[in-house]
Amino acid sequence: MAELVLKGNRRILVPKLLFEAESCRATNREREEEIATVRYKQVGPTQLKSDPPLPLKAQRSSTVRSQIQPSKPVRPPRNPSATTLFNPLSTNALPFPQPTKPTHPSTPAAAAQQQQQKHPKMVKFLKPGKAVILLQGRFAGRKAVIVRVFEEGTRDRPYGHCLVAGLAKYPKKVIRKDSAKKTAKKSRVKCFIKLVNFTHIMPTRYTLDVDFKDVASGGPDALSTRDKKVAACKAAKARLEERFKTGKNRWFFTKLRF
């Protein structure tokens, strides 16, 4: 962009930036003359003559620029309260938060509700039928199913544990050319039933809908003697073999490779 300027008897095409600079200089000169006139009227000619003349740059910096250019605005702080929040000498300092006194519940129901809000109960996901993997002991790495859960524990075992029924020996792979006798032999499984701590099992997202209620109906008492334990293992073996022959839940009857 350019502006057409009349210089003498000629018209010259001057760039816009140069034109703006020339107009600014002219404005500064007019402002200097106005300031000098005002100062002459206020001080008088004698005092003006006695003052040593200042260089042109100093005059502009002391008078013209201070009068023409506006002062830069001071940026306020982003958060005004942040500067006075923790300043004890400030008059506008905010008070420190005072600790609240604990309120004692008046009724047992309110006490139970307050305790539940402070320590919410976890969701019970270890339920009968949940497929788990044992992590410790003789059958570590074996798949099992939760039969019964003891959240609060018992007198003999004062901790959370559960009764599981699992596979100690998995069925072998059956092929087409196998005879009926050989297929029946390969389809056998060996089961175990035991009480396991919650920390010694790894729950999975799968469930096995096999009814084990009558297998260990007595709970820990079903494992009190050897005869009861053998009978419970035989019942669990019959249920699992029946499920394997139906062809359902094949994932439970495959051995973990690790």
UniProtKB/TrEMBL annotation:
Molecular functions per Gene Ontology: structural constituent of ribosome
GO biological process: translation
Database matches in SMART domains: KOW (SM00739)
SUPFAM superfamilies for this protein: Translation proteins SH3-like domain (SSF50104)
Gene Ontology cellular-component terms listed: ribonucleoprotein complex; ribosome
Region (Disordered): 43-119
One Pfam family per UniProt: KOW
Keywords: Ribonucleoprotein, Ribosomal protein
Superkingdom of origin organism: Eukaryota
Listed Gene3D superfamilies: 2.30.30.770
InterPro entries: KOW, Ribosomal_eL27, Ribosomal_eL27_CS, Ribosomal_eL27_KOW, Ribosomal_eL27_sf, Translation_prot_SH3-like_sf
Biased composition (Polar residues): 59-70, 80-93
Transmembrane domains' residue ranges: none
This protein's name: 60S ribosomal protein L27
Organism: Panicum miliaceum (Proso millet)
